[in-house]
Hints:
single chain; alpha+beta; 3-stranded antiparallel beta sheet; 6 helices
Amino acid sequence: MLKRLKDFTIGMLIGSLLFGIIPTIANTVKTFVAEEATFPILVDGQEVKLDMSAVTIEGRTYLPLRTLGNILGVKVDWNDEKGQVEIIKEGSKVQNTQVHASDIVYPYVTINGKEYINVLDVDKICSNKKCDFSWQGGRKERQWYILHKNSDLSRQQLLQKIGITEEEAKGLGNEELKRKYGLAIERDDILELFPEQSEFPYMTKEEFETIVLPFINK
């Protein structure tokens, strides 16, 4: 069992860990012997729970790219047409983002082979982080949601928090200012309704971990 983390390097392991693609160098298949890492991995002092274990190869530690992207709050995709990995930073730069934080439990369900979290659970988690979460409701298959902070601020308090004057606000309302300055997000046609599962819609695990968690933790 591994006891210590030596020469920790978060590398890109494009292979069976992420896409099932066999790496080749100069048309020669290169085989690596990997050992599952049993030591904890911490982000800002908080242990993160990985959906796929880290491994060590020749004394170095590797994480799956998609898992690493979730931890850092960036989106990782495989472009099959171009045969390349694409890392996308969505919105403002996110630093020190906690994903799979030890103080939050994520009650996921699998529907049609995809992982989701019900909006009631999202609402509870956001409330614990002093954020307000609301969604469209009704029977539409695809629904919007809005997430924002500091809902109880007065107009003057909001302007002071943002650091602008009323003149600089240029007539924008409070909700518009929150969206513009990163205190609120609005996402259209994101939530999915599965009537056979619940009367309330669901959010994908990816949406929750790459959009909602970075917002409520920053």
